[in-house]
Amino acid sequence: MDSIEIGLVVTGGLLVFVILGMRVAFAAGLAGMIGLIWIFWARKGYAPDDFGWALTVAVKTAGQVPHSKVSSQALSLIPTFILIGYLAYYAGLTRALFEAAKRWLAWVPGGLAVSTVFATAGFAAVSGASVATSAVFARIAIPEMLAIGYDKRFAAGVVAAGGTLASLIPPSAILVIYAIIVEQDVGKLLLAGFIPGMFSAVIYAMLIVGMALTIKGFGPPVRGFTWGQRFAALPAALPIVFVVITIIFFVYNPFGGDAWGTPTEGGAIGAFVVFLMAMYRGMRWPQLRDALLETAKLSTMIFTIIWGVLIYVRFLGFADLPGAFADWITSLTMSPMLILVCILLAYAVLGMFMDAIGMLLLTLPVVYPAVMALNGGPLVAAEDAAFGMSGPMCAIWFGILVVKMAEFCLITPPIGLNCFVVAGVRDDLSVQDVFRGVTPFFIADAITIGLLVAFPAIVLWLPSQV
Amino acid sequence: MAGGSQVLTDDSLVSRLDRGLLKLETLLALLSGLAVFALMMLAVVSVGGRNFMGQPLPGYVDWIEQAMPLIAFMGIAYAQRNGGHIRMDLVVGVLKGRALYLAEFVTTFAILLLVVLMIWGSWAHFDRSFDPAMPMWSRDSSMDIGIPIWPAKLLVPVALSVLAARLILQLWAYVQAISTGAETPVAVPLVLDAATVAAMEASHVTDPTEETRKGAR
Amino acid sequence: TEWNVSLWGKRRAFTEHVEKLAELVSEKTDGAFTMNISYGGLSSNRENLDGISIGAFEMAQFCAGYHADKNPSITVMELPFLGVSTLEQERDISMAVYKHPAVAGDLARWNATLLMPSPLPQYNLVGLGDAPSSLADFEGLTVRATGGIGAAMETVGAVPTSMSATEVRQAMDSGVIKSASFAPHAHMSFGTIENATWWTTNLNPGTVNCPVVVNTDALDDLTDDERAALLGSVDEALDHYIDYYNNQTMAAWGPALDERGITRVTFPPEEIEAFKKAAAEPAAKAWIDANTARGLPAQELFDLVTGMVADGS
Ligand code: NA
Ligand code: NA
User: Fold this and answer.
1) Cis before A414 (ω within 30)
2) Are residues A275 and A166 in the same domain?
3) Are A188 and A85 in a shared domain?
């Protein structure tokens, strides 16, 4: 067997491990380990005496990966972003945001649902994780919507969909992971997520207003807040603004002067601000200990997938599978745009069954070089490129598309995790109810993704300003 | 698919060992969380030093790189104990009783196999960077300020060894479950349906304002 | 025989000698000995020496400064203000250092044999804001400079900051640092010149040394013809590399500066001499002391290099 066939067989084996329920991180690591042993032994013509040599070289090659790959400054953003999210609960930011959004926005048709969407978008600015966002807002927003007569399924759907905004609007752990895998500028990718995230929120809001105007008895507007009440709601939500401004100013100074640091530092300073806020709100060691343990658990989970998958990726490097796949994709006679749409559809299907981070880590090492090759190579100039954008810009655009797909999968059956979380919080809702309620948002997401594909400027305008 | 899981306890030996090991695992995980906290403080010091004292923290990147293995590896056994490493439970979710625990035994054994090989490989990686005959025992140093890297590399086999102990304990518990035919054995993360998992995950984020207000009172 | 070669990044001036070597070796052996060059697929750049030691691949490139303790002997070539002025000189002195038994022994700890250097010109600073007119203007200047160059900059009052090369552009754009030190090709590929206003032509504080090594066992396992083809192609590969660097990269450098209206700052010789005095001697002394403690003939290596520079070879 040549190395590419070995690559395909081991990849098939990996899928079997994953489907059988082996923890994804270890399944990938084991597949990589077996693949490395195989490929080194094959180089010696499978001589029985050389198996020991192949095993040793493979084990030592794999053994470098965890320390080598994890000791990265860029990856240090992930735990900091996770910590910000946990500290934000203790800082009381969630309720403050919802209250402010309600007083300012609830007067429109479907007002409370619209407020929920923008409150989740605001919380997304401090939270790097979608699932956590849905869980909090299920407690805060659903009861208020039900109290004024919203359909309970729809109320749950709003919260499930709103949670997905957390991974596009910076900070976002998943965008950092994408940047690391494809070796692109983390700061630019985080910046690039901002407008598509807000754009998604606006599309959600327009959908809600549209439904409120056409469906009888749907989500009445909530009026009667005075300007005094509106402004009174702002101070409690201000730390969010402060954190957003901090993170933005650490990436890029909109006023043209000096920015304050690097994204890595911005994330850490943001976390520190929220930490002080939480201390002020009464967080003490027991709560901090919980926040730290939860941060550790989630970070370890993510890092274990990262090094596990990178062992597999190291094996792919020896098998040269990504190169072969890229050659195959570029040899297809279909139009590049059609191929890209097929790739996105494949993500939609895969995402129905897989976790977002695991899905990206497993597929990107092969898919990303192929997409870049499709565009004309990593260094192609915009005028020569298939998608009309330079290589680095294509990397950013594809990243936002893929992350949006991964987020879309958090609300699709059968394993839309956000929907399970919402159903788990509310005893009166079944998972089926939430999936029913979230269905309109599929349409909103499909429209968003279509527009991001058709008008890449939505994604690329902000990062190209830097 | 996700995060939290439930581990039952009783007075049996395997369960007592489970809780004993959990104490160590929790301590290591907390160390990982504290390292995240330290990372945050390090950035505050670095930015503050640069902007207010005109003196950035020397070797800031080197220190971050040294802290990352603490964050990334120390909680690995804790996460395995609590079923925190993600997986697809489409197949295991429909299995029950002996069939389920046989499947769990097989995949856990496969993990143990990988982990044992990785202990060997990561130890070799440490060993190449370690030389008692050299100043600071160092045969590999960081790029900017030249601090020895062997302590950070040593963390990997150490953390994986604790994980190996955890896996052996889980294998033992699965063997017991298979031999007794228990539906809900102790000392292993139980396969819960996705809704239960989600409910548990949601319980981590119980309304914080209420809680802290209570705490403050 | 097929060898795997571990490089990183993408094909560029810095890797042309390896590409050329692969071409020559395959030609001379009628395709019996080929090299499969991978850019980052087989290892990360800081682990290339580990990969050679393990035997995961047969040839690799790395830079001494990535991990001084892995290869203390060749970091002599990275000392500040050695006075090397051309790529040819950098090449000759590197080759002489690589042939020294203590250096060969140092790399033998990794089962590695030094094959050839990747000669780079002296680093210089690219910066934003007002161009410095004398060394006194470096007082308080934030600069991305690592290791020996960073230490040298500190002696004239600059504030060295460390960050990975990929973060440098952003750090400059955002004002975290005002200047950065690289070789010209890296200033171009990391984009530090995009918004810069000045460039120092003759600061020449030093450079990095990035050898290409082979796994010693693999070298021994080659047939005599193959080994002759490999070792006999090194000179031609290096000629090609230097020609490419001088005539392609450096040819693009001047126009790249002009296009962006970047001021060239040249310091008077007495200033450079003063800088050298303040920075070079303490660094050399510290290096010699530290490496004598490691059991290396550090003084001898240092004298070898400075002697060749003095001879103008
Ligand atoms: Na976010
Ligand atoms: Na799904």
Assistant:
1) yes
2) yes
3) yes
Among B36, B89, B121, select the one facing A80 at the smallest CB separation: B36
How confident is the model over C248-278, as pLDDT tens digits?
999 999 999 999 999 999 999 999 998 888 8
Assess if residue A88 is contained within a domain: yes
pLDDT digits 0-9 by tens, A252-298 = 666 655 667 777 788 888 889 889 988 988 889 999 998 899 889 88
* B36 phi, psi to nearest 5 deg: -60, -45
Tally DSSP H helices, then E strands, for chain C. Answer: 13, 11
Q: What DSSP designation does C85 have? A: -
ipTM given for this complex: 0.91
Q: What is the mean pLDDT of residues C4-12?
A: 88
The DSSP H or E segment spanning C179 is strand C179-182
Tell whether A425 is covered by a domain.
no
- Helix H or strand E segment including B70: helix B60-73
Residue C17 distance to chain B (closest CA, Å): 25
Q: With an 8 Å Cβ cutoff, are C69 and B134 in contact?
A: yes
Residue A330: pLDDT band (50, 70, 90) is: confident
Tell me how far apart the terminal alpha carbons of chain A are, to the nearest angstrom. 48
Same domain, A142 and A46: no
User: C226 CA distance to ligand 1 centroid (A)?
Assistant: 56
Confidence of residue B214 (pLDDT cuts 50, 70, 90): very low
Largest Cα–Cα separation, chain B: 68
Nearest Cα of chain B lies from the Cα of A21 at a distance, in angstroms, of: 5
In this structure, are A162 and A293 located in the same domain?
yes
The whole domain housing A24 covers: 1-63
A223 or A402, higher pLDDT: A402
Q: Are residues A2 and A146 in the same domain?
A: no
Is A407 within the bounds of a domain? no
Report, as an integer, the average pLDDT of A161-165.
91
Residues A41 and A108 both lie in one domain: no
Q: Could you identify the residue written with the tokens 């089926």?
A: A432
Query: What's the B154 CA to ligand 2 centre distance in angstroms?
Result: 39
- CA angle A387–A390–A391, rounded 5-degree value: 95
Question: Taking an 8 Å Cβ-Cβ cutoff, which residues of chain C contact chain B?
Answer: 46, 50, 53-54, 65-70, 109, 140, 142, 146-147, 150, 159, 161-164, 176, 290, 293-295
> How many domains does chain A contain in total?
2
Find the mean pLDDT for residues B138-158: 94
Kind of pairing, strands C198-200 and C124-127?
A: antiparallel
d(CA A340, CA A374): 9
Q: Is A408 a member of any domain?
A: no
The C-alpha angle with vertex B172 and arms to B3 and B6, in degrees rounded to 5, equals 25
Average pLDDT on A416-436 reads 78
Are A46 and A118 found together in one domain? no
Domain identity same for A49 and A112:
no
Which pTM was predicted?
0.87
